[in-house]
Amino acid sequence: MPKRGKKYLESLKLIDRAKLYDPEEAVDLVQQTARAAFDETIELAVRLGVNPKHADQQVRGTVVLPHGTGKKVAVLVFAKGEKAKEAEQAGADYVGAEDLVAKIQEGWLDFDVAVATPDMMGLVGRLGKILGPKGLMPNPKAGTVTFELEKAIKDIKAGKIEYRVDKTSIVHVPIGKKSFGTEKLLDNLKAVMEALIKAKPPAAKGQYLKSVVVSSTMGPGIKINPQNIIEK
């Protein structure tokens, strides 16, 4: 068990670990427990009643957070010709082709999201072992392999995030910053939960939302009653 800091232990005293909180109460509380000197990210962790080892129980998709993530997102685009110009005009931070592939192969990864036009995927495929494990590989299901670059880039900059169930059946996503306040954080939380519920695989049996927890970057987790989320 790792040794916890004084601020963490003080925050822990505010939480009833046995209680399932109402969403608004939990979001209020998570801001109180975010005691670091910086503007902490508020994270959402949802344990789903799926077995991710089965292909028909994968849960993956994207959602645009109504109020964004609070983070400036660096977008890299693999494109050539007119599509490269479109990407630059739409606000992409890095645009290129073979030059970017070489740079990434040398260890450069100073970006948050990678987008590619479909015709570039043969080239981008060389980076699978580098980008794949970091969740940075362009993917059609995430809307990051597309010829509609302007829309893709603007959606990402506006707060579009990708969610994906991990091998422990948990989805981890940011829902904003402490400074957002309760109303904006609740809006973002609700958007994610609605997306997850819509993404429920037909093969998933029994209880789908096993647990829902919010926490700040440096703070303890606060459990939310899954039954009370969508009604709020």
Automatic annotation (TrEMBL):
GO annotation terms (biological process) = regulation of translation; translation
Report a single Gene Ontology molecular function: rRNA binding
Q: Which residues form the signal peptide?
A: none
Membrane-spanning segments: none
The cross-references to InterPro entries, in alphabetical order and at most eight, read: Ribosom_uL1_bac-type (IPR005878), Ribosomal_uL1 (IPR002143), Ribosomal_uL1-like (IPR023674), Ribosomal_uL1/biogenesis (IPR028364), Ribosomal_uL1_3-a/b-sand (IPR016095), Ribosomal_uL1_CS (IPR023673)
Gene3D superfamilies per the UniProt record, alphabetical:
3.30.190.20, 3.40.50.790
Query: Which keywords, in A-to-Z order, does the entry hold?
Result: Repressor, Ribonucleoprotein, Ribosomal protein, RNA-binding, rRNA-binding, Translation regulation, tRNA-binding
What's one GO-annotated cellular component? Answer: large ribosomal subunit
Tell me any Pfam family this protein matches.
Answer: Ribosomal_L1
Going by the entry's taxonomy, the superkingdom of the source organism is recorded as Bacteria
HAMAP family xrefs: Ribosomal_uL1_B
- What is the role of the protein in this entry? Protein L1 is also a translational repressor protein, it controls the translation of the L11 operon by binding to its mRNA. Binds directly to 23S rRNA. The L1 stalk is quite mobile in the ribosome, and is involved in E site tRNA release.
Q: Which family does it belong to?
A: Belongs to the universal ribosomal protein uL1 family.
Q: How does it assemble?
A: Part of the 50S ribosomal subunit.
Q: Could you tell me what this protein is called?
A: Large ribosomal subunit protein uL1
- The scientific name of the source species is Koleobacter methoxysyntrophicus
**Gene name on record?**
rplA
